[in-house]
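# nightly structure sweep
# worker-07 picked up a monomer target from the shared queue
# config: single-sequence mode, recycle default, output format = structure tokens
# input follows
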Amino acid sequence: MGTLTKYRLDNSDCEIFFETGTGTGASLQHALDAGNFDKLFSCEIDPNTYNKVDKIFSKFENVEILNKDSISSLKYLLPKIDSNIRVLFFLDAHFPGETEEEFNPNDRKSDLTSLPLKEEIKLIHQFRPKSNDVIIIDDLRIYEDGDYDNGNVPKGYANLKDNQRDLSFIEELFPDRIIRRFYDAEGFMIILPAENIFSLTRLSAVYRAKRSIKRNLKKFFS
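# output follows
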């Protein structure tokens, strides 16, 4: 499971943050701290994980977390978002329960629940075919080998089948978009409209220091 916490999000030119797979809530908190999103959505299918993060974010009126799978959440929320509003999607819903101590990926079936990415992408394309959204796919190494900081997934990882490690459907659905790969950590793929220059830019030391001070102040006064 990856995170966006090392990268700038305030330069995405998007007004809504939509995450599939809340996990620990680190990326959601980072997006909230960025301050440029009017509304933030996330979904988490695992009930234990959901209960933990819901307690953390329930005090924020502009954050909504659904205890649903990503496919149901996208079907529910996408029709409610105006097509002229730009959305930053962070797709990280694979292998639910990954943040729980007892999680073992090799005990999981590589089915739609564990690997919903293809259906997620299809739904985004279906509901928002002409949008100027930014789509970030986490854990690229699940789907293809590359020079990742954390290495490729081991052979047979999570019972993955060879035909599941294929992202050709993205080029087929988005032939007019810019598609970039980043090999930091477990890897990211980014899908961009042609006029968007967003990239995964690492946070400056000044930004990280300000974020740390802000969070400490919140803890102190809470």
